[in-house]
Amino acid sequence: MNDNQKDINLLNRIRTGDKSAYKELINRHKDYAFTVAYRILNNREDAEEVAQDAFMQVFGALSSFNSESKFTTWFYRIVFNAALMQKRKNKVEAVDIESSSEAFMVSHSSDSAEDLRKNERKIAIQKALQNLSADDTTMITLFYLKELSLEEIAEVTHVSAETAKVKIHRARKRLAEEMKKLLKDEVKSLL
Amino acid sequence: MLTDEQIFDILDGCASKEILSQHQNLLTESAEYKAYFDELEAVHFDLADLNIEKPSAEFTENLLANIAYAPVKKKSWSSQLTWIFLALMSVFFVVTIGLAVFYFSNSTSAIAIPRVNNLEVINDFSTDLLVKVILLINLIVILAIFDKKVLKPYFMNRKVRLS
Hints:
Chain A: Belongs to the sigma-70 factor family. ECF subfamily. The complex is a heterodimer of chains A (191) and B (163). With 191 residues, chain A is mainly α. Chain A has helices at 3-15, 19-41, 44-60, 71-89, 97-107, 113-131, 134-145, 150-156, 161-190. Chain A folds into 2 domains: 3-89, RNA polymerase sigma factor, region 2, helix turn helix motif (Rna Polymerase Sigma Factor, Chain: A, Orthogonal Bundle); 97-190, Winged helix-like DNA-binding domain superfamily/Winged helix DNA-binding domain (Arc Repressor Mutant, subunit A). In chain A, helix 2 packs across helix 3 (44-60) and helix 3 (44-60) crosses helix 4 (71-89). By secondary structure, chain B is mainly α. Chain B has 2 domains: 4-49, no CATH class; 77-162. The longest helix of chain B has 48 residues, at 115-162.
């Protein structure tokens, strides 16, 4: 049984009123849903709310789900739309990466130079992702989660597969530029 | 120099052989290309290494607490109508047969009830009461189908238009 068949099986159990199936479905997809929402919103509380809201929407609209389709495509589209709506609501973005990155640096003070360099890059890439548009962030996040094919990412983001491919390329290019800028700034600040 | 798209195709593992050989040549010949490729490659691996974020430990419990579990959907009245109709018809059929058997067996007994009268009773029952009941049930079924197929969709559309 592949992943999608497992999901469909769980959905069928939910339709028959099996309460344990709700929990199983949530546990299977909560991390990915939260990650997508978090990368778009940059705020853990909002991301958690959006992920929960997406699950609620799924449970409320089970009758409209076509069992021939892939569950994750449908689900990520709900998460993506919910996160975008939340992002529009939050005009002022809460940036908590500064504090978390400092804590991260302190807690990893005993690591080797290589580890520190890796951590620095991780923090920089998270910062760079925050500077991208929601569209770019989503494209990159969905692509690197490796859960969806290019066609499925296109379906989630309401574009053609060819456009999705171009958008992913451009988003990565912009991210590389952001990274360059951020790392340059860091070097400048150290000097 | 290769385009960004071509470089990303190399990183994603979907570049053609021709592009790959061009890429190998450029790596050895152009320091500028190598630096640019290394930069994009580093970003690519950084992204691939990004952790999956974890929600709070109470995520599932909080969500389950908010779910109003959908009750097991009972079959609607209209979907059960066919079975109800068939069940009623079976009951009538059994009753009719039962009555017929009862009156025929009585007619052979010692009590002298004219046979013609018994048959008349059965005939009256089947032609009058039974037919009336069957007609009534048919009428109910037709009204239920009309309600489901015509009236309900019409009023639903009207509701959607008005809202």
